[in-house]
Amino acid sequence: MSSCSSTPPSSGQLLAIFVGFVVVFVKITLLVAVCRKRNQSRISDKPSFLTLTMDKFLNDMEREKPIRFTSQQLRIATDNFTNLLGSGGFGAVYKGIFSNGTLVAVKVLNGTSDKRIEEQFMAEHLIVGFEKLHDIAVGTARGIAYLHEECQQRIVHYDIKPENILLDVNFFPKVADFGLAKLSNRDNSHITMTGGRGTPGYAAPEVWLRFPITHKCDVYSFGMLLFEIIGRRRNLDLNLPESQDWFPRWVWKKFEAGQLGELMLVCGIEEKDKEIAERMVKVAIWCVQYRHELRPLMSVVVKMLEGALEIPKPSINPFQHLMPGTPIMVAYSTSAFDTDSSQTITGYRFLRGTPIMNKYEIEIASI
């Protein structure tokens, strides 16, 4: 959509728009080259259904006059694909620069079959837009906030994850599968559990460490879900380099280093969605804080995602407890987000695990 403002766009904005188009065109070119090479190697002259589908898609794209680059041009621009920006579930993204100084991100799709590659190519251009993904995140947050704060008795879901968020025909999210849910009296801040609940990768640390549980465990799970919405990939992918295999920790490193621009390139987030994406990153980091006191209420999460509430810049590494053998100092305050608490708690705790706990990357939480 064009802006309603009469102020002409700056040269920087024009460059950002141009770069965005270039990124799309580069992706198209890569797959076209792959398809042509494979078509030439086929003995039969009869095109397959998948090839016809791809040709139709490319013909539709040509109506928008995309620029196609040769494989050689892309190799020159990326210095033979040497500067890896990051990797997703279906390909790697490399940094490139054209002779006119334009920076580009080149994504090379990979897969085990022609069908898999072609499906991913189509998905790169026809999947839900980032603005709609943001709406899905907000709708999910509202659903959890309703369970926590608007029901007669608080309902803790315990298993917030992508598989339990259903989308209707209009992509409106609905929180589903209450098989592990538990009612909680609002007067009791902690919940008694007889066994572990939740799904590894989404369950809060206090759940698998058997520490006192609160409704904030759902906030943690939502934060992990939010990371997957931002990256459009599973948080854990062991096929990626070690520095990128766990997406939330990689995001924190980029955020801490002030390199969110690189994150946007890797995740295919356009310039127009940059502000929304940065907001989502900050919210995700706050939601997955190790101490539940630092996590915001879900109603606050909704306001932060909608832009109705200013988001303090996260300064505490939420994954510091996963660094074995390292003393951890945590400063915390419950007054910033948690309006359920009438008392402000501030202080410092040094945490160090035993050799066995360090081996399994488990830390003792100070109460």
UniProtKB/TrEMBL annotation:
PROSITE patterns the UniProt entry points to: PROTEIN_KINASE_ATP, PROTEIN_KINASE_DOM, PROTEIN_KINASE_ST
Residues that bind ATP: K107
Location (main, coarse): membrane
Keywords: ATP-binding, Glycoprotein, Kinase, Membrane, Nucleotide-binding, Serine/threonine-protein kinase, Signal, Transferase, Transmembrane, Transmembrane helix
Compartments (UniProt record): Membrane
TM regions (residue ranges): 12-34
Domain Protein kinase positions: 1-309
GO cellular component terms, semicolon-separated: membrane
Single GO molecular function: protein serine/threonine kinase activity
Matches recorded under Pfam families: Pkinase (PF00069)
Protein name stated in the entry: Protein kinase domain-containing protein
Family: Belongs to the protein kinase superfamily.
Biological classification of the source: Eukaryota, Viridiplantae, Streptophyta, Embryophyta, Tracheophyta
Record-linked PANTHER family: RUST RESISTANCE KINASE LR10-RELATED
InterPro entries from the UniProt entry: Kinase-like_dom_sf, LRK10/LRL21-25-like, Prot_kinase_dom, Protein_kinase_ATP_BS, Ser/Thr_kinase_AS
Membrane topology of the entry: Single-pass type I membrane protein
